[in-house]
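User: Hi! I'm working on a homework problem where we have to compare a predicted structure to a textbook description. Could you give me the structure for the chain below?
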Amino acid sequence: MSDPTTPHSPRDVSRLDPTDLTHRPFPGSVQRQGDAFPVVVGQSVLNDIHRHGQSVERIEVCGVLVGNVFRDPAGAYLHIDASIRGDHAASASTSVTFTAETWTHIQEILELDHPGKRIVGWYHTHPDFGIFLSDMDVFICENFFGMPWQVAYVFDPVRLQDGCFVWKEGKPTRQPMTVDPDAAPAVAVTAAPDTKGGEPTSNLADVQHLHDRIRQLEQMQKSLIAGLVVVGVLAVLLPILIYALTRDPVASAEDIPLLPSVPTTMP
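Assistant: Happy to help. Predicted structure tokens:
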């Protein structure tokens, strides 16, 4: 499939040429919504992602979305019917990075379990950070998932919110998803409030502030523990030190215990 973008044409799903896409009827269990480029995802796929996100508390996890982009009489649409976990990714509390080992694992699973399908986007979690894309997230979108039909899915396993981002006018932009009810929901997830016309409701500065605050609290905890250790050591050594400094180095006669007298008998 060709990429219609050029240096003067930013990534945008509206610029897709449907004639380049395989024709397939829109998934029969759902109805096409008013979006120009519907993103259809199976509930079973979301369940797998949600379980992955809730398996590690307070640490971001990631993976890729698998499926294909098709067309029907109304135009192009994306169908996501699988996901692959990003094993071996470098994860932290506020970031996640795909490593070489992660890509090797993903390619092996893609070829083995999903022949004929392609990577149509990626997912990652924001534990208690809300639904948005940080500068690093956008960098990953631009450099690894830059085809105009590739998307990003964000899940907050603490707030139980999610959101999907598609390419519009050169940047990932929030758009509702269409869920194919091929399974029962594993958890009750709601779309995060979007009160800024598609822009994320949180921003990187908020996350960075939270991250800095957490680091400060961790440092305070370490300092407190170190202080308690010092206090404990002083509580043991201080009485000994005071005694050593205040006692008379020359013991008086009264301080020396007397030996019991032993009666003697003259021969």
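For your comparison, note the following. Residues 155 and 162 are 4 Å apart (CA to CA). The helical segments are 43-54, 100-113, 135-144, 204-246. Good luck with the assignment!
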